[in-house]
């Protein structure tokens, strides 16, 4: 079986990138493959906000990512630089910068491109959405 790194470059809503990445990840895991991590980059970091409130008749993509992470122990990693410039702030970053609020969900961790490169070295494939 293969080991994948999934890179998500699109937001949870407005494009199909996140949904396609999520569906691919779910199918890969069901087929017995391993997801080393999901790396959210560029506008993909919007997938990590706890302040998204989709309508009750819409699919909650962000919740689905959290469920995938919890069920399969898949790390969800935000590019910290991309996140901070888009106002996506973790509790630690808020504390370090004197901010009273943060919006990154607990299922997501902040990381850098170095983590992506390290993951790629141990993966069989990088799949970008």
Automatic annotation (TrEMBL):
GO MF term set: sulfur carrier activity; sulfurtransferase activity
Xref: PANTHER family: PROTEIN YCHN (PTHR34874), SULFURTRANSFERASE TUSD (PTHR34874:SF3)
Transmembrane spans: none
Main localisation: cytoplasm
Superkingdom field: Bacteria
Gene Ontology cellular component annotations, sorted alphabetically: sulfurtransferase complex
GO biological process: tRNA wobble position uridine thiolation
Protein name per the record: Sulfurtransferase complex subunit TusD
SUPFAM superfamilies on file: DsrEFH-like
Keywords recorded for this protein, A-Z: Cytoplasm, Transferase
Positions in coiled-coil regions: none
Keyword Cell cycle appears in the UniProt entry: no
Cellular location(s): Cytoplasm
Similarity section: Belongs to the DsrE/TusD family.
């Amino acid at each position: 079986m293969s080991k994948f790194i999934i890179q998500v470059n699109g937001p949870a809503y407005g494009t199909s990138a996140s949904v396609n990445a999520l569906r691919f990840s779910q199918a890969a895991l069901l087929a017995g493959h391993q997801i080393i991590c999901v790396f959210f980059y560029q506008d993909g970091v919007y997938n990590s906000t706890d302040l998204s409130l989709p309508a009750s008749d819409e699919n909650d993509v962000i919740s689905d990512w959290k469920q995938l992470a919890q069920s399969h122990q898949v790390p969800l990693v935000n590019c910290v630089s991309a996140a901070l410039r888009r106002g996506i702030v973790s509790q630690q970053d808020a504390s370090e910068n004197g901010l009273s609020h943060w919006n990154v969900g607990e299922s997501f961790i902040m990381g850098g491109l170095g983590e992506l490169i390290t993951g790629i070295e141990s993966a069989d494939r990088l799949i970008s959405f």
